[in-house]
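Researcher: Before we compare anything, I want clean individual predictions. No alignment, no superposition, just each chain on its own. First chain goes here; please echo the sequence and then give the structure tokens.
Model: Echoing the first chain and its structure:
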Amino acid sequence: MKIRRTHLICVAGIDGSGKTTLALGLVNRLRDMGYDVQYVHGDAHGIQFLPILKPIKTLAKIFFMRGTNQQSNYFHYRRVQVSISSRHRLLSGFYGGLCFLDYCAQAFVRVALPAMRGKTVVADRYIYDVLLNLALATARPLEAILHLSNIFFKLNIIPNAVFLVDTPEEIAFRRKSDIYSLDYLRERRSAYLEMARRFDFAVLDGQSDPDGLVSEAIARCFRTAIQPESS
């Protein structure tokens, strides 16, 4: 039994849920099994493919989000963000569209190309996480954003397995010292669970033993996403 050449496994979840631990565990386990695996984190560390995106983000912070601080007062930050996005629908839609196109290019280079070269890619965050963040950033309902996945998958790879590592926000908050608000986690956890229902993700318990989660994910991959490769 061999993983198909264009095999992609995605792991999603709130910060502190244990998704990175699972993703890296999958990478190590699959390598031990003899697969050529590449780990990709959804955060490109500030790299943008569209040159116009960075100055737009800077201008948006100066003109619209001045006086707010996501870390010190997340509730105030979100209230202002929702208010601005609601009053400037065209601008927020334009911004969201640019972010979406930028990620389409990133994903093609960082995920699709390695997979097409025969690697098994484990993505720690993928398009689903991007769509969730876009819905929040542009103050649009999640269902109004999810249709963009149809456009995304015309150019990029559909994952063979998606795992949502679900952990109560209070526990995730204690795990991560750089998370600044329970509201931040609570808002995103609710959206992730809604997305899991819509896309039929495999939901894993983030409070379980990490090695056990890796074994469960591997078993699910072999049951649903791995097929014999013709010799």
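Researcher: Okay. Second chain, same rules.
Model: Second chain and its structure:
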Amino acid sequence: MMMKKLFLLTLVMLLPVFAQASAGPAIQLDSMQADATDKASLQRGMQTYVNYCLGCHTAKYQRYIRAAEDLDIPEDLMTEHLIFGDQKIGEQMTSAMDPKLAAKWFGATPPDLTNEVNLRGADWVYTYLRTFYVDESRPYGVNNVVYPAVGMPNVLAELQGVQSKTCGDVAIVDLHGAAVMDSQTGEPMTEQSCEIFSIAEGTGSMTPAEFDATIYDLTNFMSYMAKPYKSDSQRIGLWAVLFCIMMTILFYFLKKEYWRDVH
């Protein structure tokens, strides 16, 4: 009886894990490797976040002063260029938008983004920010490949440009990247794909490569916000491992000395 109850309890505890696994992304996410040591990237990412995200999304678990210290930004430059309104450098990064008005305009209050990368992953955020496209059926005229029926406008459109989603035939490839051939016709096999994008000429201030680099920096900064201690943890962890190795060697020779005369 006790074993049965234990089994049921374990099953109930694992249900959220199974649910999360089954709710995985339906598309292939683009990969990005966050780098907590790239201070220049983090500085650029914070600038983009403050200029384009902080108007609606708070980062209430992140303080300006902590970011200034971690990212090597002088406090006077932080205050002059990255803090707007009457906020102080010791305060949290909060939005000036009224939450009630935001809920009225967008249908829901824009979420706090401090832990967004912890929640969804850096690859998800990186892909999401780059896959808005025109959809006149939506209230703000845009939709998103990663988050269908998204309820926010594409605030980065002035940088990326107006992006349209088109469909076309894409070659089917095997695990080695080679084209799969039709055994009947001998021609390469294709499938219909609707993840081919085109950007209207002259609508964005950045080239696609520049925009991708900007979104990398922004996602990198959001990854830092989610784990501001990561760089310190890696540094301390390295010294801890070296200390353990050194003590292991010391104790090994100490043990040999103690047991040298024991037969």
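Researcher: What stands out in the second chain?
Model: The chain has a mean pLDDT of 85. Additionally, The first strand starts at residue 59 and ends at 63.
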